[in-house]
Amino acid sequence: MNKLSGAEKGAYSGTSPGKKLVIVTTVPDTLELILESQPQFLNECYQVVVVSSAQQRLAAFAQKEGVDFEVVPMNRGISPLEDINSIFQMYKVLRKHQPDLVHSYTPKAGMVSAIAGFFARVPVRVHTFTGLIFPYCSGVKKFILKQIDRVICCLNTHIVPEGEGVKQTLAPLCYKPLKVIGYGNIAGVNLMHFNPSEPEVVAKAAALKSELGLCGKTVFCFVGRLNKDKGIKELCDAFLTLDPQKNALLIVGGLDDENPVDAQTLQKLQSSPAICLLGFQPDVRVALLAADVFVLPSYREGFPNVVLQAGAMAKPALVTDVHGSNEIVQHGLNGWIVPVRDSQALSAQMQMIGGMTQSELAEVGRQALALVHTRFERSFYQRQLLAFYQDILS
To answer: Do residues 28 and 106 make contact, with C-beta atoms less than 8 angstroms apart?
Structure first.
């Protein structure tokens, strides 16, 4: 666990145990899967309160982190009546705790805490944009989402884009200075957990390769929801052009309910003997370590954690040229970049990768690991975040 030494605590003169920080997410998933250990770290310098929905899960998370919590029900969809209630409940929470700073993540939490925080007179209000949805929508939905983002920008005192790509897209909408923390991302990678030398994970990965007959093949791995916008169709079409005797594809993740992959693509995935649908896996390290290359052909991203996780497992990434992914991957050095929605370009790159030796692939993987160590290690990010808080609270 990343802890500050006494000298380091003294160095952060703008921090004080008397100051209170409220962290808000729409659902506990963001806390559990991404921000894990961050509240505990920040609690060394602030009184931290986490706010989200789903009381039982939130209570368990808060207990694990050693911080206080408050439950505010929030709906991820567009639901005006429920949103009004969420804003009112958030207002009451903020008036109760009177924090010095409230920091929200995810769109709905951003809107709710921005409005409630403004009326509750929280002096410092921060929102992190982890990706913008409105540029990829149309019609009424695009208009509504764009106006919500305008409200978030207007009512918060500080806006944090998750990466440079998000910053560029957000700039015309937001008149305030936009600050990317560190090199991007919102949490960094726990390199003690994502460790390619962990004996138990190594053993499980070897067993998986043996069970699925992957030895001697070039193994690609996708991790994520089976969502149209993740480029599953292009991935399927591209992979099916490869020799099934020499290549394999692991797919980790369940079907997405909101924007599912089309039925024809799903049938192709299920019928190919060289494609292994592993479903949701609570520990993605095993599949990543069993693979040679991670692949994420998505149409849009904010700043994909899974690309960083793959790099931490010393796996190069094959990604599309979208925000976030192209901020992590340097083509030919720690992975490869292909155009969006281009199955032919994806196929050609996968063919090229299939022709590389294991030692050549391992070298690209080592470069991926080196980049994560240098720019995205969790303790580095957390200290950057703490310095950001010190600056805006001083």
So the answer is: no
Give the count of domains, the chain.
2
In the chain, which residue ranges form alpha helices assigned H by DSSP? 6-11, 28-29, 38-42, 55-65, 80-97, 107-119, 139-155, 164-170, 199-212, 232-239, 263-271, 285-290, 305-312, 325-328, 343-354, 358-375, 378-393
Is residue 136 very low, low, confident or very high in pLDDT (cuts 50, 70, 90)? confident
As a whole number of angstroms, the distance between CA 88 and CA 91 comes to 5
**Gap between the Cα atoms of 36 and 29, Å rounded:** 10
Question: DSSP readout, 156-211?
Answer: -SEEEESSHHHHHHHGGG--S-B---TTS-SS-B-TTTS-TT-HHHHHHHHHHHHH
Nearest to 52 by CA among 1, 95, 103: 103
Residues 352 and 326 grouped into a single domain: yes
Angstrom distance (rounded) from CA 288 to CA 292:
8
CB atoms within 10 A of CB 277: 16
**CA dist., res. 73 & res. 244, Å (int):** 48
Total-model pTM? 0.89
Output Rg (C-alpha) for the chain, integer angstroms.
Answer: 22
Whether 320 and 296 have beta carbons less than 8 Å apart is answered as: yes
10 Å Cβ neighbour count for 107? Answer: 21
Query: CATH number for the domain including 327?
Result: 3.40.50.2000
Q: What are 25-68's pLDDT values in tens digits?
A: 999 999 998 999 999 999 999 999 999 998 999 999 999 999 99
Residue type, 385: L
Whether residue 90 is found in the same domain as residue 204: no
Given a cut of 50, is residue 13 above it in pLDDT? Answer: no
DSSP string spanning 359-381? HHHHHHHHHHHHHHHHH-BHHHH
Give the residue among 107, 98, 97 at the shortest CA–CA distance from 30.
107
User: Could you read off the pLDDT of 249-287 as tens digits, one per residue?
Assistant: 999 999 888 889 999 999 999 999 999 999 999 899 999
**Is 232 within a domain?**
yes
Cα separations (Å) of 17 from 13, 14, 90, 172, 351?
11, 10, 23, 37, 56
Rounded distance between C-alpha atoms, residue 20 and residue 205, angstroms: 43
